């Protein structure tokens, strides 16, 4: 297949994700690329994805090896999911989701984990950044840390690190270096539910990975439950965040928990649910939705009151709630953390360089702070494209479009339209 590489839509410690276009059909797909010499995690992800088939897991399309700037590149082809990640949705809705929407997404994540676990695969890095939101709902992505069930136990005399994932989402047994299996995915799911409910990570008062891992592994603490959560929701979390992995509920048990129970007709409907996601600023349905909603007309501040291009673009990327008094505190969320990768022999170079993964996960604030007050359109597109949820629309802007007008429109998208779209989904297909 011949294809062309488009703008970057995601960057990590070892790979970059771009939108790509099939030259023959014109269809879009996602391509995750890494240098061939550092592609062990991508090749492992390919081996898992190629054996899985579930609407709750990102669809595998193939792989190839190309040479770009004289550097061999390994490319993993996957379906393009235009609605962004669950992390994007949480921020776009002001830092927390309605409990009815949390139920819907949690149910769908469990359906994906059920498929993984039935095939003997532990994901090992469940979190909102690794959950994509497609037209049919949730899709689990990023299997680079995943392991087969027979490979997850750690021997005490092993000289090789065998745990993977993001420290603040790790289960106690993983933090202690004892084992990492299906049970750890359930703990991480509980942490993700807290993230959906509060807009913060499970340990918001911890800003040091070593201290966090010690607390997780060697104390009696569990993450604090959301105060406004229902009793059924809190009971569900208690089954996920059981410190003793032997007593933690399985995927099958959680699927039967009262917190997730909906009528049969509702379950059938949600499988057919489609969200309306604009893929460009020229999408007529997008503009119609603004005309039908008052949310885009009632701004809590004027974008023109921001003092610099840097502040205006921060507003666009982080959503307007970042500038509203008493907005959610994101200073301790998992954006400041890094993903730990296993140190296998084929990826020794990967692990050495991934020790600074939290530095390589680009900070948008750092990127834009070098730009002057008068920001050119080309620079604007360059720095915005990798970060916005509805990324493809950026490339459709015309050079003559006034940046201020665009910023005002985009702030409405992030605060108004995106959140309302998710509410409509749950009201029609997942509500109680």
Verbal overview:
It is a single chain. Helix 3 runs antiparallel to helix 5 and helix 11 runs parallel beside helix 16. About 29% of the residues have low confidence. The chain is globular, with a radius of gyration of 21 Å. The longest helix has 28 residues. 37% of the residues lie in helices and 12% in strands. The N and C termini lie far apart (46 Å). The protein has a 5-stranded antiparallel beta sheet with strand order 1-2-3-5-4, with helices on one face. The protein is of the alpha+beta class and 432 residues long. The protein has 3 domains: 76 residues, Phosphorylase Kinase, domain 1 (2-Layer Sandwich), CATH 3.30.200; 186 residues, Transferase(Phosphotransferase) domain 1 (Transferase(Phosphotransferase), domain 1, Orthogonal Bundle), CATH 1.10.510.10; 147 residues, no CATH class.
């Amino acid at each position: 297949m011949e294809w062309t590489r488009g703008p970057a839509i995601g960057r990590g410690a070892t790979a970059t994700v771009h939108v790509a276009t099939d030259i023959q059909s014109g269809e879009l797909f996602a391509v995750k690329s890494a240098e061939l010499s550092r592609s062990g995690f991508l090749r492992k992800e390919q081996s898992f994805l190629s054996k899985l088939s579930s609407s709750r897991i990102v669809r595998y399309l193939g792989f190839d090896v190309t040479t770009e700037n004289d550097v061999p590149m390994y490319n993993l082809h996957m379906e393009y999911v235009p609605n962004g990640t669950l992390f994007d949705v949480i921020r776009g809705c002001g830092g927390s989701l309605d409990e009815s929407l949390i139920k819907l997404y949690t149910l769908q994540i469990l359906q994906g984990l059920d498929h993984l676990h039935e095939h003997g695969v532990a994901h090992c890095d469940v979190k909102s950044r690794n959950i994509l939101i497609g037209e049919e709902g949730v899709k689990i992505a990023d299997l680079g840390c995943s392991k087969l069930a027979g490979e997850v136990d750690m021997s005490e005399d092993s000289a090789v690190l065998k745990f993977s994932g993001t420290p603040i989402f790790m289960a106690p047994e993983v933090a202690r270096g004892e084992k990492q299996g299906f049970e750890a995915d359930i703990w991480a799911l509980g942490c993700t539910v807290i993230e959906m409910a509060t807009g913060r990570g499970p340990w918001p008062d911890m800003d040091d990975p070593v201290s966090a891992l010690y607390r997780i592994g060697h104390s009696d603490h569990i993450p604090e439950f959301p105060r406004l959560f229902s009793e059924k929701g809190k009971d569900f979390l208690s089954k996920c965040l059981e410190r003793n992995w032997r007593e933690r509920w399985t995927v099958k048990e959680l699927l039967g928990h009262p917190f997730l129970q909906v009528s049969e007709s509702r379950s059938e409907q949600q499988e057919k649910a489609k969200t309306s996601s604009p893929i460009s600023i020229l999408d007529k349905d997008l503009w119609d939705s603004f005309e039908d909603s008052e949310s885009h007309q009632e701004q809590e501040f004027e974008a023109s009151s921001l003092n610099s291009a840097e502040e205006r673009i921060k507003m666009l990327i982080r959503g307007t709630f970042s500038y509203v008094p008493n907005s959610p505190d994101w200073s301790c969320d998992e954006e400041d953390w890094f993903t730990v990768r296993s140190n296998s022999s084929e990826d020794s170079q990967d692990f050495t360089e991934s020790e600074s993964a939290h530095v390589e996960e680009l900070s948008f604030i750092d990127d834009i702070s070098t730009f002057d007050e008068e920001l050119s359109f080309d620079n604007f597109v360059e720095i915005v494209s990798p970060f916005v949820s509805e990324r493809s629309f950026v490339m459709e802007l015309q050079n003559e479009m006034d940046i201020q007008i665009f910023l005002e429109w985009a702030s409405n998208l992030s605060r108004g339209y995106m959140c309302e779209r998710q509410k409509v989904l749950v009201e029609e297909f997942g509500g109680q």
